[in-house]
């Protein structure tokens, strides 16, 4: 009898399979409406994470979260050794282990052990974290039971943001000098930010606070903790902190981005900076109100362009632009004006991938310094290993009395403020604040880099979202037949039109994006495409 079986017999009784429907490991792991059938899924994910840990001889992470989705949802995803998303081959194992019956479970575990040549004598190590949903604690307990079934050790981090858990896993496995602790995480961001500010001409500290909408979730709590490390170098004023409102309800990054308005109940003042994070703080958007009382959104595209243009300038001044290739990765949701600006004005190459952080992250690794952002605010900057080494080495001998030396030191500090492992709202905010301070830029100045084409992002409920199939980084529909030609026809009727539809990977809906030369045209295009989807997909 395999060594795990006696323990499996004991724990399985507490987590019997409750759902006959087939579930798949998607962009965001397993995610659904919460009911007690999610318990067995998370228990089995705990078992799989333990196997993955033995397979890689490394710490593996499990995060319990449904991120931007409503409080009634929950989910779980696995974090690979260097903070990456779970490898595709193991997503297949995930589907196998979740969809088999209770009777088949031992056999499926053994088949994964055999297929991956796993040395079962090693003790698995799994880091577990969760968001603030009411169902998260119970799911975390289920995960722990799964890991322990395989004889694994768990480090339970409790309430953390998704990027914090990714950081811990990366930090431990890579034996980073930045410790795999909450303190290590906060010190990495705040110490490098303070170092960066000392190099800036305009300011030694940023006196005006940035208001952070914490989506009534974990981001609010953790922004408060980060503040204690930042001290008076940067002031974070947290609202929607969970003391009164409901998670992601009329607040948070997803609400602000899709409704293109500020959170309900937030009284925005002209001249101030605002940022909204989502339910697990892995994405962020900024916004402000102009003097004429108009709301202006600075979404993931605007964040990406600010970071890319600033990096380009630093690379030129530090005379490192020949050694380090800079590139940007976007998805189909990127506003056409942002892509035009970056390619035509800044002469930086742009790649387009499917939605899903793992696709963007992977493509960003093609550059020495790759900036990637989804328009919804999910993104970061990744530096290749050789770029990190080159910058650190140049910083160690940089002459801070020259412009060139200061640029090298700023580049080095930025590479440490940013969470290179995964998109991280908190570290992104600090990077944006660093750049705005150094450039002495107001929100208006930032916004003026380029003007967004008017756009609409909406959703359509359909019976079965899988009827929509796409290609060309989700920009072209291949099924239902005729839908793409009909969309093209509507696009041709407006100026500077562009539109696409794709099935969501996290909700049972189809997303529709439309942009055009004027707001009326964008609305007209979106309405037309929504009707087409309703007609042809139901
Ligand atoms: C997840 C993914 C993102 C994706 C988002 C929405 O984000 O990690 O890459 O953009 O879902 O995906 P979809 O349009 O397929 O529903 P999060 O922040 O919810 O984990």
Task: Tell me what the structure shows.
The chain is globular and about 70 Å long. The protein folds into four domains: 5-159, Alpha-D-Glucose-1,6-Bisphosphate, subunit A, domain 3 (Alpha-D-Glucose-1,6-Bisphosphate, Chain A, domain 3, 3-Layer(aba) Sandwich); 186-298, Alpha-D-Glucose-1,6-Bisphosphate, subunit A, domain 3 (Alpha-D-Glucose-1,6-Bisphosphate, Chain A, domain 3, 3-Layer(aba) Sandwich), CATH 3.40.120; 300-424, Alpha-D-Glucose-1,6-Bisphosphate, Chain A, domain 3 (3-Layer(aba) Sandwich), CATH 3.40.120; 455-536, Alpha-D-phosphohexomutase, C-terminal domain (TATA-Binding Protein), CATH 3.30.310. The strands form five sheets. The chain has a five-stranded mixed β-sheet with strand order 1-3-2-4-5, sandwiched between helices. It has a five-stranded mixed β-sheet with strand order 7-6-8-9-10. α7 runs antiparallel to α14 (403-417). By secondary structure, the chain is an alpha/beta fold. 42% of the residues lie in helices and 19% in strands. It binds 1,6-di-O-phosphono-alpha-D-glucopyranose. Residues 27-28, 67-68, 278, 282-283, 355-357, 374, 376, 378, 504-507, 511 line the site of 1,6-di-O-phosphono-alpha-D-glucopyranose.
How would you briefly describe this protein structure?
With 538 residues, the protein is an alpha/beta fold.
């Amino acid at each position: 009898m395999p060594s795990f079986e006696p323990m499996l017999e004991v724990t399985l009784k507490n987590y019997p399979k409750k759902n006959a429907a087939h579930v798949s490991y998607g962009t965001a792991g397993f995610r659904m409406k919460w009911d007690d059938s999610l318990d067995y899924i998370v228990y089995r994910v705990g078992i799989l994470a333990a196997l993955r840990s033995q397979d890689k001889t490394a710490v593996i992470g499990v995060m319990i979260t449904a991120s931007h989705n409503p409080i009634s949802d929950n989910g779980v995803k696995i974090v690979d050794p260097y903070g990456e998303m779970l490898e595709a081959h193991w997503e297949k194992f995930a589907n196998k282990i979740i969809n088999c019956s209770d009777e088949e479970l031992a056999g499926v575990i053994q088949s994964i052990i055999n297929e991956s040549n796993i040395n079962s004598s090693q003790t698995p190590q799994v880091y577990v974290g969760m968001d603030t949903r009411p169902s998260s604690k119970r799911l975390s307990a289920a995960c722990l039971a799964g890991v322990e079934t395989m004889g694994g050790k768990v480090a339970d981090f409790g309430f953390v943001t998704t990027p914090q858990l990714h950081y811990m896993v990366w930090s431990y496995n890579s034996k980073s000098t930045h410790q795999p602790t909450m303190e290590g995480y906060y010190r990495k961001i705040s110490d490098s930010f303070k170092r960066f500010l000392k190099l800036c001409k305009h300011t030694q500290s940023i006196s005006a606070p940035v208001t952070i909408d914490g989506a009534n979730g974990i981001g609010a709590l953790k922004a408060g903790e980060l503040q204690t490390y930042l001290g008076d170098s940067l002031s974070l004023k947290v609202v929607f902190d969970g003391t009164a409102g409901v998670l992601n309800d009329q607040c948070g990054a997803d609400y602000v981005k899709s409704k293109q308005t500020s959170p309900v109940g937030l009284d925005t003042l002209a001249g101030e900076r605002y940022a909204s994070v989502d339910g697990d703080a892995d994405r962020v958007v900024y916004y402000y109100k102009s003097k004429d009382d108009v709301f202006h959104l600075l979404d993931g595209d605007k964040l990406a362009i600010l970071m890319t243009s600033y990096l380009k300038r630093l690379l030129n001044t530090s005379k490192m632009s020949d050694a380090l290739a800079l590139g940007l990765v976007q998805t189909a949701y990127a506003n056409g004006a942002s892509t035009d600006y970056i390619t035509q004005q800044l002469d930086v190459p742009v790649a387009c991938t499917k939605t899903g952080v793992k696709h963007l992250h992977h493509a960003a690794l093609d550059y020495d310094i790759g900036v990637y952002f989804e328009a919804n605010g999910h993104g970061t900057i990744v530096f290749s290993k050789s770029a990190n080494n080159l910058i650190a080495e140049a910083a160690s001998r940089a002459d801070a009395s020259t412009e060139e030396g200061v640029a090298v030191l700023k580049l080095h500090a930025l590479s440490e403020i940013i969470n290179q492992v995964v998109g991280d709202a908190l570290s992104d905010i600090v990077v944006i604040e660093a750049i705005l301070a150094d450039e002495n830029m107001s929100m208006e100045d930032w916004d003026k880099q380029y003007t967004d084409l008017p756009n609409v992002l909406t959703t359509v409920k359909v019976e079965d979202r899988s009827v929509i199939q796409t290609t060309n980084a989700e920009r072209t529909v291949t099924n239902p037949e005729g839908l793409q030609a009909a969309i093209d026809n509507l696009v041709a009727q407006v100026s500077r039109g562009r539109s696409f539809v794709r099935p969501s990977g996290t909700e049972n809906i189809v997303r529709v994006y439309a942009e055009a030369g004027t707001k009326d045209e964008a609305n007209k295009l979106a309405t037309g495409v929504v009707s087409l989807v309703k007609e042809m997909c139901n």
